[in-house]
Specification:
Layout lengths: L2 H4 L9 E4 L2 E4 L10 H5 L2 E3 L2 E4 L2 E2 L2 H14 L8 H14 L5 E8 L16 E7 L6 H6 L1 E5 L20 H12 L4 E5 L5 E4 L3 E6 L2 E4 L10 H12 L4 E3 L4 H5 L3 E6 L3 E8 L2 E2 L7 H14 L7
Parallel strand pairs: 8-9, 8-15, 12-13
Antiparallel strand pairs: 1-2, 1-7, 3-6, 4-5, 4-6, 6-7, 9-10, 11-12, 11-14, 14-15, 15-16
Length: 302
């Protein structure tokens, strides 16, 4: 099965978009071509799953959005609670039970120059849609990935805690994955250690211990990563944060990814090498089940 056969582009119906406090039909929801978000990737965003009509981990996502904006000196013209309320309203306006929200904050309309201080008011947009990052069979059987040649942007260049609109680094690594006929690519940092994937955080299992790269590896501090970390400890499994080398991945007993769209998914092959016995491992399966139970619990929305 080819990459294109696995990832078919199914057109979604037109949705209501929340933009600067108003709902507009998708075709009418527009921002200026002079917006710095369009011209320079000057803005921040979040991806938030919706389960049973409720935005998952909304407070954690909004906190991260505002922290990203603060680091870019980008003032969001709404309170955190106002934005959370707007996300809930967006779900209702689109009759969304299970789906995906994309809050986006751009710098606003400016000039063709690079200075952000000549921009007008920021634009705040909430897009509703559906997301199915990987097909069902990958969750049952695991997925193949590669280790990309594209190096993860260094934390000295851009704080990894900033989830900005400039995803070119990740896109270049994703292109490598597509060219290799797989769904995802692992990105190394400048030290040659594992950082994260193009859109997901990564964990390995070795000797019954779950291991994930530390914050200092240059990773985005994933919301799903944090939830899964708590679930690991609740299951009585040891969890440590430490640098992971490519060889550690190749020789791991298990490997899995976490992310808003991906949730929890096993990696069973890296660079055509099987991980463990080449099947979804027992610890990964436990965490997949635990996460599915968690997202349907009230705790996930506090």
């Amino acid at each position: 099965m080819t990459y294109d056969e696995i990832f078919r582009d199914e057109r979604e119906p037109a949705m209501k978009v929340w933009i600067n406090g108003k709902f507009l039909d998708e075709a009418e929801a527009k921002i200026s071509v002079f917006d710095h978000g369009t011209l320079y990737g000057d803005g921040v965003f979040e991806g938030i799953r919706v389960y049973d009509g409720r935005p998952f981990q909304a407070q954690a996502h909004v906190d991260r959005l505002y922290e990203s904006a603060r680091r870019l000196r980008l003032a969001i013209p709404y309170t955190k609670q106002e934005l959370i309320d707007a996300m809930v309203e967006t779900c209702r306006a689109n009759d969304m039970i299970d789906g995906y929200l994309r809050p986006v904050v751009t710098r606003g309309r400016g000039t063709l120059g690079i200075s952000p201080f000549k921009c007008s008011n920021p634009n705040v947009v909430i897009i509703a849609g559906q997301v199915a990052l990987y097909p069902d069979e990958m969750y049952a059987e695991g997925m193949a990935v590669i280790i990309a040649k594209t190096v993860r942007t260094s934390s000295e260049m851009l704080p990894p805690s900033v989830k900005s609109l400039n995803y070119l680094n990740n896109i270049l690594a994703k292109i490598e994955a597509v060219d290799a006929g797989v769904a995802e690519a692992i990105m190394l940092n400048a030290n040659g250690n594992v950082a994260e994937c193009t859109g997901d955080n990564i964990f390995i299992v070795a000797g019954g211990t779950v291991i994930t790269p530390p914050d200092a590896a240059g990773i985005l501090l994933g919301i799903t990563r944090a939830v899964v970390g708590r679930l690991v400890e609740r299951l009585g499994i040891s969890l440590i944060l430490k640098d992971i080398t490519p060889q550690d991945v190749y020789t791991a007993d298990e490997c899995f990814l976490t992310g808003t769209a991906a949730e929890v998914i096993a990696v069973t092959k890296v660079d055509a090498r099987p991980i463990g016995d080449g099947n979804v491992g027992p610890i990964t399966r436990k965490l997949m089940d635990a996460f599915r139970q968690f997202v349907r619990s009230d705790e996930a929305y506090k």
